[in-house]
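Supplementary Methods, section 5.1.

A reviewer requested that the exact input to the structure prediction be made available. We therefore reproduce it here, unchanged from the version used in the analyses.
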Amino acid sequence: MSINTPNPNNTIVIIPARMASTRLPGKPLADICGMPMIAQVWQRGIEAKIGKVLVAAGEDEIASAIRKVGGDAILTDANLPSGSDRVAQALNMRDPDRQFEFIVNLQGDLPTIDPKAIRACLGAFLTYDADITTLVAKIDNEEELSNPNVVKAMTKFAQGASTAIATDFVREIPDQTPPPFWHHIGIYGYRREALEKFIGLPVSAREKSRSLEQMRALDNQMTIAVSRVDVVPFGVDTPQDLAIAREVIAQHNQQNSS
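The structure derived from this sequence is encoded cell-by-cell as follows.
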C-alpha cells in the first residue's frame, strides 16, 4: 500500500450525481441562489482547496450545468448501482494514467457543507495508514440518538485526538455502550487501490442486513478511519430542505458581500 499522503497534485474530489429522486425530482438542478444545487456543491469542493474537483454525472443535463459554470464534469453510466461505482467509473475515465492516489466521494446534495469538513475527511490519512476515511460528529440529543435513519459510528478517540479508527457502523447503539456517541457523515476519502477493491467486492451480509454500504469494507478487513467535525452537514432531500438551503446560502452570500 502507498505510504504517500494527500496533496493537491494527487487528490481529486468526485461528486456523483444523478437525476433520480422521488422526494425532490430533478434535485441536482434545483436552483439555489442562481446556481443549480450540484454547482453549489461543486463550488464547496473548489473552496476546500484539496485538489481537482470533478462531477460524475448520470445524465447529460447535470454535466451541462456544471460546464456552464466553468466546472469539470464527465458523463457516467446512468444505471450504475451506487455513488461509489459512479465515482470509480469517473475516476478511471478521467485519469487512466493514475495521477490521483486519493479520492474524496462528496455527496451531491450537501450545498451548504463547510469546505473545512471536506478537508477534514482527508485528515485521518495523515494519522493512519487506513484504506478509507470518513467523518463523524458528536451526538448530543436523544432524538438523534434514537433515530434509526441516523447512522452511528462506533469508535473511541484518544484524549485530545481528532481522528480514530472505526470498529462498526450501526443504526441502533448496542446496550451498555458508554457515551459519547458519534453521528456518521457519509463523505468518504479513499486510497485509489482501496476504492478499486471496494467496488469489486460482493455485497456483504452485514451490508445487506443494515443497508449500510460501509459494512462491506469492514467485513473484508478494510480499515476505516474517522475525523471528528463539529457540525453535521445539512443534506437536501425534500422541498422543505431546499428552502432552508436557499436561506442559508443567501445569508452566506450577503455576509461575504458586506
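The chain has a mean pLDDT of 96. These observations are discussed further in the main text.
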